[in-house]
């Protein structure tokens, strides 16, 4: 396995954590490259459920280098809690974690600004996770950010916090007397968090270069999803980073030539948390059934996720934006017993025009409705199936349909939350009979 970028191909929560954990078994280095603790990546191992927010999803394997890259925004309080909870709390060896000294820090005022910003937007709010992600990336771009390395020098830390706070005084006026914003105690708190994180802080790009030079396997673990990308997503209903594959290079310090493969993760249907356009949304009883069957409640905020049919127009876009070389389809098991399935194959705009490609213009995108092809569903419980050939015919046809539409091979199929509830496909072309009946030719 060479270097692989794992990205969400929809609106997040596609199952990236599970796929990364699976690939991590054969990897040497696992790197988070963007986002922050707005992410919630679930790994299920036997009876144990791990919900990771900042930790790369390779942390459960002892000895594998896990890197939080420069592109991630780190709330040091959340990170130290995650280290303690996994380490002393659950006996996970976290000594192989490394944190980029150049990553930016989420500060108490970023969280307040996130809350305030949403409150001020009223009905127009984005539905952020209120973790301070947007204001932190804004400070990074304004060159007012505080970085991990600043934690190690009290004088620099104080100066930088002071400089960052000054221009925000007006916005933070309601919190003027809040002890949370007291410069002295903030410096104290962050210094003490810095001491706790110091053993893990490193110049991380050379660690990745060295691994690549030695021919090691590197997995770059994306957070959020393509349609939440600040440049390519459904702006302004997006996050403040670039969850797309290109960002793996910038957010970790390697070049594009260092990436061999890009795997997109999609659910067998669609979900979205927070506001924004969702053309294939099921705002009805069927959508509720899908939510219950799929346990569609946010890993980070517990919010009910909006649900809908698989949107191939949006996925086709994700294929191009990320340059996907393979697709992982998760949660196929959730569709069992749902009756006939719909897949969105094009959009109809407010003035009647049809769109085969994802519309760039907000006036169209926000009002577009999905047009569907109906395909047969299946009733069987598929959660114990481990071979493609053993899936009900309708399930196989559903996957073939997706593969043929997107022209990207499906390599992994999720049939349940547990690690082993997966079907690995070595040669996905086998499904469409293009190379004869080789459906039995599967990895592991
Ligand atoms: P991530 O943010 O992309 O890592 O995804 P989340 O962890 O937020 O949400 C995915 C949810 O689906 C988690 O609860 C996973 O345990 C669960 N999950 C992942 N793959 C499958 C699958 O194939 N079937 C089922 N039923 N659940 C899955
Ligand atoms: P993972 O990595 C799903 C959504 C929020 C909101 C928008 C902006 O688990 O897939 P933010 O707090 O980032 O400013 O919120 O983005 N969002 C996610 N939705 N999965 C995530 O991460 C998300 N991270 C942010 O709900 O709509
Ligand atoms: Mg998630």
Question: How does this structure look, described?
Answer:
The protein is an alpha/beta fold and 444 residues long. The protein has twelve helices and 20 strands. The strands form five sheets. The protein has a ten-stranded mixed β-sheet, with helices on both faces. Strand 3 and strand 4 form a beta hairpin. The longest helix has 15 residues. The radius of gyration is 22 Å and the shape is globular. The chain starts with a strand and ends in a 20-residue tail after the last strand. The C terminus is likely disordered. The structure holds guanosine-5'-diphosphate, 6-O-phosphoryl inosine monophosphate and magnesium ion (MG).
Low-confidence stretches: 430-444
Number of helices: 12
Number of strands: 20
Biggest beta-sheet profile: 10 strands, mixed
What is Rg? 22 Å
Instruction: Report the sheet-strand fraction.
Output: 15-25%
Quaternary organisation: single chain
Task: List the ions, cofactors and other small molecules found in this model.
Answer: guanosine-5'-diphosphate, 6-O-phosphoryl inosine monophosphate, magnesium ion
- Arrangement of strands in the largest sheet: 9-7-5-2-10-1-11-15-19-20
What's the overall geometry? globular
Query: Can you give the helix content as a percent range?
Result: 25-40%
Mean pLDDT: 94
Structural class, please? alpha/beta
Taking the alpha carbons of the first and last residues, their distance comes to: 14 Å
Short characterization:
With 444 residues, the protein is of the alpha/beta class. The protein is built from 12 helices and 20 strands.
């Amino acid at each position: 396995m060479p270097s692989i970028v794992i990205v969400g191909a929809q609106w997040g929560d596609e199952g990236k954590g599970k796929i990364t954990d699976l690939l991590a078994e054969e990897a040497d280095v696992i790197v988070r490259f963007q986002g922050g603790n707005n992410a919630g990546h679930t790994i299920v191992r036997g009876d144990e459920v791990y919900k990771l927010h900042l930790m790369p999803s390779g942390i459960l394997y002892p000895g594998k280098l896990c890197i939080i890259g420069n592109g991630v925004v780190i709330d040091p309080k959340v990170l130290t809690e995650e280290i303690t909870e996994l380490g002393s709390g659950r006996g996970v060896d976290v000594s192989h974690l490394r944190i980029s000294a150049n990553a930016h820090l989420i500060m108490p005022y970023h969280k307040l600004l996130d809350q305030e910003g949403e409150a001020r937007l009223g009905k127009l709010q984005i539905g952020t996770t209120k973790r301070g992600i947007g204001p932190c990336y804004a400070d990074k771009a304004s060159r007012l950010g505080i970085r991990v390395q600043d934690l190690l020098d009290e004088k620099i830390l104080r100066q930088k916090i002071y400089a960052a706070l000054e221009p925000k005084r007006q916005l933070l006026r309601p919190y003027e007397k809040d002890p949370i914003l007291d410069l002295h105690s903030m410096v104290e708190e962050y210094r003490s968090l810095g001491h706790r994180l110091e053993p893990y802080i490193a110049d991380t790009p050379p660690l990745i270069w060295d691994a690549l030079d030695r021919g090691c396997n590197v997995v770059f673990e994306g957070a959020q999803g393509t349609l939440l990308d600040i440049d390519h997503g459904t702006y302004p209903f997006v996050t403040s980073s670039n969850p797309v594959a290109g960002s793996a290079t910038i957010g970790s310090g390697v070049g594009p030539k260092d990436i061999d493969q890009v795997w997109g993760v999609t659910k067998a249907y669609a979900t979205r948390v927070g506001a924004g356009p969702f053309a294939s949304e099921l705002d009805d009883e069927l959508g509720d059934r899908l939510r219950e069957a799929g346990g569609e409640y946010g890993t980070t905020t517990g919010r009910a996720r909006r649900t809908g049919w698989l949107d191939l127009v949006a996925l086709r876009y994700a294929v191009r934006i990320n340059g996907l070389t393979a697709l992982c389809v998760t949660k196929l098991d959730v569709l069992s017993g749902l009756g006939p399935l719909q897949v969105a194959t094009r959009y109809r705009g407010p003035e009647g025009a049809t769109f085969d490609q994802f519309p760039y213009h907000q006036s169209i995108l926000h009002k577009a409705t999905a047009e569907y092809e109906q395909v047969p569903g299946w009733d069987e419980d598929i959660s114990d199936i481990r071979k493609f050939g053993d899936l009900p015919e309708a399930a196989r046809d559903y996957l073939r349909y997706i593969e043929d539409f997107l022209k990207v091979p499906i390599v992994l199929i999720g049939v349940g939350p547990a690690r082993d509830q997966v079907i690995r496909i070595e040669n996905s072309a086998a499904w469409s009979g293009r190379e004869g009946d080789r459906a039995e030719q599967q990895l592991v």
